[in-house]
Amino acid sequence: MSELIGKKTWRRVDGVLLLDKSTGMTSNSALQAARRFFSAAKAGHTGTLDPLASGLLPLCFGEATKFSVDLLAADKTYEADLLFGIQTDTGDADGSVVRRCPVDFGNGELEAAMANFRGPIRQIPPMYSALKRDGKPLYDLARQGIEVERAPREVTIHDLQLLDFAGDRCRLRVTCSKGTYIRTLAEDLAHALGGLAHLTALRRTAVGALNVVDAVTLEQLAELAEETRGQWLLAPDTLLQSLPATALDDEAARRFMHGNPVSVMAAPGKCRVYGQGRLLGLGEVDDAGSLQPRRVVGGAVGCSGDERE
Questions:
Q1: CA separation for the pair 107, 193 (Å, rounded)
Q2: Dist. CA 196–CA 99, nearest whole Å
Q3: CATH of 243-296, one of 3.40.50.620, 2.60.120.1440, 2.60.120.830, 2.30.130.10
Q4: Which of 14, 20, 50, 70 is flagged as catalytic?
Q5: By the 8 A CB rule, do 39 and 9 touch?
Q6: Residue 188 and residue 194: Cα distance in Å, rounded?
Q7: Would residue 50 show up in a list of annotated catalytic residues for this protein?
Q8: Contacts of 266 (CB under 8 A, 6+ apart)
Q9: What's the whole-model pTM score?
Q10: Which of 114, 121, 237, 294 is most exposed by smallest CB count within 10 Å?
Q11: Which of 107, 76, 73, 100 is nearest to 86 (CA)?
């Protein structure tokens, strides 16, 4: 079904696009550009990347948007470039310099300091963030010169590796849990060394099992005809591959699609549900073996092909 809005005809598109976002643009502007390339009536993303950052931005079209929230909690991997000796008000290269200091540590000291940032750590969110205080984003307060107290948050650094170090610059690879601020990690690492730092570049290379090597840029999409761009669309259940799969017979599938629980032989917890040769949605099995529908897809959508796992 298509919808005519102004001079643009929007149509139903169901799928996931792994976009390699370039620097200098917001996640929403990247989403809207990709949406127009596919004439998709409904679209959303799975978590923002700052304009400074590049890399993997999974986009959802149509029925896939129902599962975008399930990727928000996924671990993420970044490559981050740090410049030591300079602190900015935003924690990155987009900000204004507020302090400087000499850099007088070497590779050994840096590696030793990094060891203290692996595993569970506590971070104080930066003022230049989208977190809200009394309904106002913190970045709005920061732009007014207002700083408010922020409660520390516990996050987990699953892996932290030094990729390169030369003089006052280094590159890190970070795999971390939801809610980790890489800008804050850079500043805290420098503080542990008795100095200052800020991010000069940030690239997201993975979100859960999704990797930027499988992503496409807006420039590449622009070079393709609209009818061939579909080769870059993945099935909606791409976002659910970390969950076990449950297959239903035709009768159980009909009940599930009408919002009714069904009995299954499966371990408790969330699962992706298949039946009638297609993805049915997201379900959750309770301790009694009752599969409760959580999100149900509307109409036929494709699946990734491994629903029998």
A1: 11
A2: 8
A3: 2.30.130.10
A4: 50
A5: yes
A6: 10
A7: yes
A8: 244, 246, 285, 289, 291
A9: 0.88
A10: 294
A11: 100
What is the sign of the dihedral through the CA atoms of 237, 243, 266 and 293? negative
- How high is the pLDDT of residue 28? 94
What does the block give as tokens for 68? 């975008």
**Which residues is 272 bridged to in the sheet?**
245, 282
Fold of 2-73+210-237: Pseudouridine synthase (3.30.2350)
Q: Is residue 68 within 8 Å of residue 42, measured between CB atoms?
A: no
Please state, in angstroms and rounded to a whole number, the distance separating the CA atoms of residues 207 and 26: 18
* pLDDT given for residue 306 in this prediction: 54
pLDDT along the chain (309 residues), means of 10: 61 95 95 95 89 95 89 92 97 94 96 98 83 75 78 95 96 96 96 97 95 97 93 93 93 95 94 93 95 87 56
User: In angstroms, rounded to a whole number, what is the distance separating the alpha carbons of residues 271 and 293?
Assistant: 10
CB-based contact 162:110 (threshold 8 Å): yes
* pLDDT confidence of residue 5: 47
